Amino acid sequence: MSLTVLLPRALYPYARGSATLRLDERCLTVGDALSVVKARWPGVADRVMTERGDVREHVNIFVGEENVRFAEGLATRVDDGDTIMIVAAVSGG
Fold it and tell me: What residues does 4 pair with on adjacent strands?
């Protein structure tokens, strides 16, 4: 199985300068994929997830074009070849 995780520029330093993370481990859900990210790039996971394991309020995660907040959250299924995109939410007025 192979997944791609795309990072926003602010997270590059925590991924050894990479914009793209490749996961070859078997992952069935977004939560599984983020567990792999946490094991290999803990600085990335610390900035995406809270201490309780929830996605931080100002972070959005997409599988393809679907925001996981409006799907099954961390239980959103992923398939071989999927792309997970981590995006910093933009807010203000």
Answer: 22, 83
According to DSSP, the β-strands at 83-88 and 66-67 are unpaired
Task: Round to whole Å and give the CA distance between 11 and 23.
Answer: 17
φ and ψ of 88, to 5 deg: -75, 130
Tokens 């490749």 — which residue? 22
Query: Burial of 85 by CB count in 10 Å (0-12 exposed, 13-18 middle, 19+ buried)?
Result: middle
Phi-psi bin for 3: left (phi > 0), alpha (psi -120 to 50), beta?
A: beta
Beta strands in the chain (DSSP E): 3-6, 20-23, 59-63, 66-67, 83-88
CATH class of the domain defined by 3-88:
alpha beta
pLDDT means over runs of 10, the chain (93 residues): 94 97 97 97 97 94 95 96 92 62
